[in-house]
Amino acid sequence: MKLSLRLRRLLTTIVTLLIWSQLAWDYFHGGVPTHYLLHDDRFPGIPNWWGAAILPFFTWFLLYRIHKRIDGRGMLVASENLRNIVLRFLSGVLVAVAIAVCFMNGIEVTDYIMGSLFVLAFFFPLYKSEYLLGWVLGAAFTFGAILPMGFGSLLALIFFVFYQLGKAVGGFIRPKTT
User: Keyword annotations for this protein (predicted)?
Assistant: First the structure.
């Protein structure tokens, strides 16, 4: 199955409606929250309004990247089917929700979760767009959309480097067979 233009439009519309619904709820129930870098109010605040303006474009961009990767090739790689992409997306959502729940409840395991992601990045392509989209959408409710977009994009870059290092070291260690 392909990631058609119609499906990309539908998913982007759903994300747009969800983020604007959350903003409407926040507005009528105490005001739209502002988030701070490193959770320190000495830094400039980023209100959730910015996320509502930018998240639909970010979603569209990542869905377009996924579309180009899976639909833009002559032959489809088995690991690049839509089912695997959905599973990657859901794993990104689950990790982000786990971190958000731990953060909100003061559970001190977020460092271990993040550390395990850095280790897993050597073996799995955690830099792919579906992981990033899952991360951003899973964390947006708690942290707004802008901070997860920025932090997730930085993580994707680091994870790309780690994955390439893991492949290089793995290729160096494994003997070539003829």
Answer: Membrane, Transmembrane, Transmembrane helix
Amino acid at the residue 102:
C
**Alpha carbon of 18 to those of 23, 87, 151: distances in Å?**
9, 21, 21
| CB contact set of 128 (below 8 Å; sequence gap of 6+) | 66, 69, 88
Distance CA 19, CA 41 (A): 24
- Dist. CA 77–CA 70, nearest whole Å: 8
- Give the global pTM: 0.88
* Distance separating alpha carbons of residues 79 and 110, to the nearest angstrom: 29
d(CA 1, CA 17): 25
Residue 133: partners with Cβ closer than 8 Å, 6 or more residues away: 59, 62, 63, 66, 89, 92
* DSSP state, residue 176: P
- The pLDDT tens digits of the residues spanning 39-77 come to 788 988 888 899 889 999 999 999 999 999 887 665 556
